[in-house]
């Protein structure tokens, strides 16, 4: 399930809003919240817009949009589709409510009132098994209809924070992979076209000659 959420400004990691967590959640996620702060420091406008960072029993999912980072800490078993759908919901509402004010804010947690919407939305994205027992197949249906997230970058927290791997480098690698994939598709398409030309060109040439002969004979 979704455990905790924080929203920060990407350019300087200034906290804008956060979920109000109980004391037990604060203690349980203390280390992971520190890790989240380190992730915020590494994010730049060129970073991967969506990323899941695995850390022990939990996964940190973040969404970068319009110089705002939306990050939630969820159980590792929690579906990524639901996690990013949750973040998308927050992003849309936050952009409408506070988007124009984000750049001018100077004090932390200026939009603390957004917790009301976060809490309400988080309740819709509780553990799928518990929610399913209470509300039938609503979440299962939602899970099936959500966008495909198989291409979202996944990273291990140890690799990201302790081995010096940066989010910019992750973005660069992801872009390179997409570029190489596109080149491969174009090359494969050209090869297929050339194969078709080699296969059907002789037939076309014979047909053309026959047409010329018939036209010349009956004209």
UniProtKB/TrEMBL annotation:
Q: Does the keyword tRNA-binding apply?
A: no
Residue ranges of every copy of the Longin domain listed in the record: 6-118
Specify the V-SNARE coiled-coil homology domain's residue ranges.
Answer: 138-198
The alphabetized list of GO BP terms reads: endoplasmic reticulum to Golgi vesicle-mediated transport; protein transport; retrograde vesicle-mediated transport, Golgi to endoplasmic reticulum
Question: Keywords of this protein's UniProt record, alphabetized?
Answer: Coiled coil, Endoplasmic reticulum, ER-Golgi transport, Golgi apparatus, Membrane, Protein transport, Transmembrane, Transmembrane helix, Transport
Q: Which SUPFAM superfamilies match?
A: SNARE fusion complex, SNARE-like
Q: One Pfam match, by short name?
A: Synaptobrevin
Which molecular function term from Gene Ontology is one that the record holds? SNAP receptor activity
Instruction: Kindly indicate where the leader peptide sits in this chain.
Output: none
Q: Where are the transmembrane segments?
A: 200-218
Q: Which GO terms describe its cellular component?
A: endoplasmic reticulum membrane; Golgi membrane
Membrane topology per the record?
Single-pass type IV membrane protein
Spell out the subcellular localization from the entry.
Endoplasmic reticulum membrane; Golgi apparatus membrane
Q: Which protein family is it in?
A: Belongs to the synaptobrevin family.
Q: What name is this protein filed under?
A: Protein transport protein SEC22
Q: Which organism is it from?
A: Scleroderma citrinum Foug A
């Amino acid at each position: 399930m979704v455990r905790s959420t924080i929203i920060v400004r990407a350019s300087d990691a200034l906290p804008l809003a956060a979920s109000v967590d109980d004391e037990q959640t604060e203690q349980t996620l203390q280390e992971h919240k520190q890790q989240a702060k380190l992730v915020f420091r590494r994010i730049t406008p060129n970073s991967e817009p969506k990323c899941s960072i695995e850390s022990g029993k939990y996964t940190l999912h973040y969404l970068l949009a319009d110089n705002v980072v939306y990050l939630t800490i969820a159980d590792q078993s929690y579906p990524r589709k639901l996690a990013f759908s949750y973040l998308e919901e927050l992003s849309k509402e936050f952009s409408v409510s506070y988007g124009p004010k984000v750049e001018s804010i100077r004090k932390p947690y200026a939009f603390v009132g957004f917790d009301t919407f976060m809490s309400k939305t988080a309740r819709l994205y509780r553990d799928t098994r518990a929610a399913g027992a209470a509300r039938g197949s609503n979440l299962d249906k939602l899970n099936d209809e959500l966008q495909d997230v198989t291409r979202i970058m996944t990273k291990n927290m140890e690799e990201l924070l302790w081995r010096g791997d940066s989010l910019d480098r992750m973005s660069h690698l992801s872009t390179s992979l997409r570029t190489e994939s596109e080149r491969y598709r174009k090359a494969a398409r050209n090869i297929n076209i050339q194969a078709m030309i080699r296969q059907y060109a002789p037939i076309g040439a014979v047909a053309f000659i026959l047409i010329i002969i018939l036209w010349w004979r009956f004209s």
